[in-house]
Amino acid sequence: MDQPLPFTWSPQLNAAPADQIRLLDVQALDVRLQQLAHKRRSLPEHAEIEALTKDATQLRDLLVAAQTEESDTAREQTKAEQDVDQVRQRASRDQQRLDSGAVTSPKDLENLQREITSLAKRQGDLEDIVLEVMERRESAQERAAELTERVGSVQSKIDDATSRRDAAFESLDGEIASVTKEREVISATIPADLLKLYDKLRGQQGGIGAAKLYQRSCQGCRQELAITDINEIRSAAPDTVVRCENCRRILVRTSESGL
After folding, report:
1. How many folded domains does the chain comprise?
2. Alpha-carbon span 188 to 144, nearest angstrom
3. Is 21 in contact with 252 (CB distance < 8 Å)?
4. Is there a single domain that holds both residue 110 and residue 159?
5. Is the residue at 206 inside a domain?
6. For 140, phi and psi rounded to 5 degrees?
7. Going residue by residue through the chain (259 aa), what tens digit of pLDDT does each one get?
8. All residues at 6 or more sequence positions from 135 whose CB lies less than 8 Å from its CB, including other chains
9. Is beta strand 217-218 parallel, antiparallel or unpaired with respect to 240-243?
């Protein structure tokens, strides 16, 4: 049957108890920095801005389509009005010829009158087209105006959310800078080899490199230590850097360790 592994401490690594306790202060500050970073990433304004930006993009696409339709119908209206004008001018010339008496042949008169009648019908048809195009253009203009207003409204909401996000950033960044400075000050008082081990373990163990031994339990993995491990810790020198056999984190002994 396999024998349990003996309790592990860091080979040839020693640090004054006060230094080890200060490591817990660094750990607390690192946890706070993680929390602040998470809070910064998780601000509700992020999701709000993302959703509003998506809405704004869709509305702008619709606005471009409406503006394009308005532009197209404007050209179509211009063309239709030009056609009406051409037919009107031709009909006017024919009517002037008819009224002048210059056409005397009955057949020519009949043809001229027939053409005037045909031009009148053609003008009416073209004027109907102009009206239909004008209605479509007006509808596109109204749609563009409505979408412009909606885009402006959404953009105002984006600007407001961005301002709130930036204000939160400023507050959080200020606290992050303060906590970072405090960590630097405390870290400078901790032996380099101990701090290096702590940082390595912190990277491997989800941000927790050192934990308090509290009432015979590791506060890193929240598991109670076996009595044999407790006895080994009890017999270890105060400056010995011990580690949890379960999670491998640095265990810091205090008056609350229950040894």
Report:
1. 2
2. 63
3. yes
4. yes
5. yes
6. -65, -40
7. 444 444 455 556 899 999 999 999 999 999 999 999 999 999 999 999 999 999 999 999 999 999 999 999 999 999 999 999 999 999 999 888 888 888 778 888 888 888 889 999 999 999 999 999 999 999 999 999 999 999 999 999 999 999 999 999 999 999 999 999 999 999 999 999 999 999 999 999 999 999 999 999 999 999 999 999 999 999 999 999 999 989 999 999 999 988 7
8. none
9. unpaired
Residue where a domain stops, chosen among 143, 177, 211: 177
- At 150, which amino acid appears? R
In this structure, are 97 and 152 located in the same domain?
yes
Residues in the chain: 259
Euclidean distance between the first and the last CA atom of the chain, given in angstroms as a whole number: 29
Amino acid at site 178: S
Q: Do residues 196 and 169 both lie within one domain?
A: no
What range does the domain containing 52 cover?
Answer: 44-177
Distance CA 123, CA 91 (A): 9
Task: Decide which of 128, 150, 177 is a domain's last residue.
Answer: 177
How far is C-alpha 190 from the geometric centre of its chain's CA atoms? 40
Spatial distance between the Cα atoms of 112 and 95, rounded to a whole number of angstroms: 8
Two tokens, residue 180: 């970072």
The position carrying tokens 């946890």 is: 31
Q: Are 27 and 183 in contact (CB under 8 A)?
A: no
Q: Is the dihedral of CA 9, 11, 13, 14 positive or negative?
A: positive
